[in-house]
# Entry
Amino acid sequence: MTEFRSQDEEVGQVRQRAIVAGGFVFICLCLLASRFFYLEVMRYDYYHTRAEDNRIAVVPVAPNRGTIVDRKGEVLARNFAAYTLEINPSRVDDIDDTIDRLGEIVQIDDYDRRRFRKFRESSKFFESVPIRTKLTDQEVARFVARRYLFPGVDVKARLFRVYPHGDLFGHVIGYMGRINTRDEERIEADGEEANYRGTDHIGKRGLEQSYESLLHGRTGSEQVEVDVGGRAVRVLDRQTAQPGNSLILTVDVGLQRVASEAFEGRRGALVAMDPKTGGVLALVSSPSFDPNLFVDGISVADWKALNDSPDHPLLNRAIYSAYPPGSTFKPFMGLAGLELGKRSARQAIADPGYFVFGGHRFMDDKVGGHGMVDLHKSIVDSCNTYYYMLANDLGIEAIADFMAPFGFGSQTGVDIPGEASGVLPSPAWKRARFKKPGQQKWYGGETISVGIGQGYNAYTPIQLATALSTLVNDGVMFRPHIVKYIVDPVTGARTQVEPEPIRRIPLKPENLKAVRNAMVDVTLEGTGARPFKDAGYTVGGKTGTAQVFSLKGGRYREGDVAERLRDHSWFIAYAPAEDPKIAMAVLVENGGFGSRSAAPIARTVMDYYLLGKRPGDPVVTPEPQAPAGGGD
Amino acid sequence: MMEWKLHPVALIKGLFRPIDAPLFLMVCLLMAASLMLMQSASPERMQAHLMNTGVALTLMWITARVPAPRLLSMAMPLYLIGVLLLVGVALFGETSKGAQRWLHIGVTRIQPSELMKIAMPLMLAWYFHQREGAIGFMEFVVAGILLAIPVGLIVTQPDLGTSLLVAAAGFYVIYFAGLSWRLLVPVFLVGVVALGTIVVLGDSLCQPGVDWQILREYQKQRVCTLLDPTSDPLGSGFHIIQSTIAIGSGGLLGKGWLNGTQTHLAFIPERHTDFIFAVLAEEFGLVGTLLLLAVLMTLILRGLVIAVGATSLGQRLLAGAITMIFFTYAFVNMGMVSGILPVVGVPLPFISYGGTALVTLCVGVGILMSIQRERILSQS
# Structure
């Protein structure tokens, strides 16, 4: 009967093990009991004193947020102290009644009440919640005199963010907003909970968001004695807060203003940068918004106005909206032809005014064509046929491989959040983009459209500015950045955000020269000549028109289509051509021909940057007419 | 078992038959304390807490009515479902607070690691039960693998607290199954030495630049804060400083029910969940805390007695493991609130607010009752 024996053994074993476990439990519980005895009996006096007579609260001291200034030191974001009236809901019995009574002393609007309710939902149980911000001195005095009537209500000095230039830098600086649940989760995941105690605002967009951890600083703390009402009586111990770093930017307020005003309220975007460092000199997305509206919780009316506007002012067109580049793609295509050995600079093709592929006629803008066209003429006159043929000869894979290093179709890595990656079309991209097998195939005709910057091509203005910078900087690409220095507020030490070349594209100097010479002639005799008349410096540029609405087979006539369906107007430019100090991409939505809308903006910005000339000094130009010939 | 009797007394007797009186009494004492403490710490949660308690007790009763062998036969499917759900979490889980723990199923979301706390000991007890009479070295290796899979999955979520609890649950089964002392004792000693090292070398290990490899930054923070709570007065040290003040100021007899100044001034965060012990210690003093320890000790002893007397190997192992899980919850929770263990999210059993944990624990009690009932039936 071995089985019985083994079962007996097992019972015995479990019994033995249970006795050991019981002993272990007993020892552990005794350990706990001795800990409780130590805390509650031996150390009772100490803790009793700490808890009962002088209740000690650890109060976080929020750090001062770093300021943001432009390259010349002009302030773009700073802090100011204001009094806020705050209620600690855990210490108030009837909150509605308290607010009603407070309303007799200080002004409290429906908006304040609504905001209070909203904040209260998202705040922790024991936190105080603002009911009124930015109290006047009189209101503070009136409340303080009656404070004893309002347990759980207090006036606190809080720092608010202010943006002196309003909507000029809305898309660059972004704004601050109250910490919401999602922010809280991120803070918790980063182990930054302690550092955000006492802070209730956080960067939500732009530089305020991307440099949040640097701008914020380190929270300090005070151990304070509090009375029965929970008010601080005396500070016992203090760990000072460490203010956040300040930022010095590469942008220039003057240039940004000139650039923004040049849009005259039209929709569009401009990115100007120093091609030698990647430093962004101006970044405009028009129309913009005033970040000051958000600081204190945006009102419903303001939010509706911003959100419902057909112009979408909250949209950062400079880094998020991707458009077909149109003819601004041609210099890059031309360079591809030279570099990949499919064309020489002198080699000319005959342009009959169209290119036939697969039974379809791809039209040039000039009826009858441009005649014999070489690389130079193809850029200066923006000849489509040249690029239809070139694209066909290169093939889509080669085009995509050549363009990718210039940053087309990928995020530039600029230091503000929310960048789109655009689309650099290729058969692989199409396979990934479409689900149905029928749509996944790449057609030869699509390559032809890509050659003139139409079709699936879609790039953001900052991508185009970066690609142009790379082209004029002999193939050395810098990551565009807006922050130039990070300044330690205590030591004053500046850390330069070093310009880092992220890539060196091997390009032959003679090929670069051929393309750039043609771009200079664009502004001297080509499609960009009129806006750059008498410029006083040499400019390389290229116009572009991105089709919004395709008129099949017909020729495009501006008057025929509604304003919102008109073509987008592009202009890319750099100057001085011999030694570029500025390179930019300008886009005007539904602006029509590039030479008409976008190029004059580029001229205005360059005049200011290179000559210090403001647009007030008028250069009288004749009323523009539709160009007589040439693409765009 | 399911016979229907019309006589009312017999009917009521029948309803109560699966319930083990000593266990039930201890659980009721703990729940009564819980209701009192909740009234003090967070009265607005009273209604929800009563509902949770009702649901948990009902589930306990239902579990107690299921014959113990049938419980064990559910081990394999439950375990497989649990592991599958954990894999699901790893693949499609919802990330909350930096960790993937939740899985959306239709309208509701579930935390599969909670299911694992019951499924894990069930599975191992069932496995050893199948191998009864032939338990050798290989059986322990297999059990170790069965244990490592879900624990590994939970660690990667990452959820260190839960993975430790699940690992402990499985370990207890292996322990009761007779894992050699020659293996247990060295492991125990290594653990003690490792802890000692951290305590002794704490200062240099807690320097900001030091990377701990196996632990995440915030977990390192917690261990370091335990060694020196004042180093992080606003972060996790805040909890420990405040809860020790609350406990210490309770004194011998406490400040009396509803009179805890620390808890009422809201210095104690999470005072209704993981830190509810601080409320008890402050309001009922050393007497209250020792009473709690006594009730818990009784509960655990009763569980161990049931384990020793159970009718089959599987039931013995299961009962022993579940009992020790109660102990682990209680010890880790009170240890952390009183500042001798790092802060990990473990509730005080039957007392902390929170429906999921309460249900898990009550199902555990139900299993113990079912096992005890099996014994009574086999003796009659």
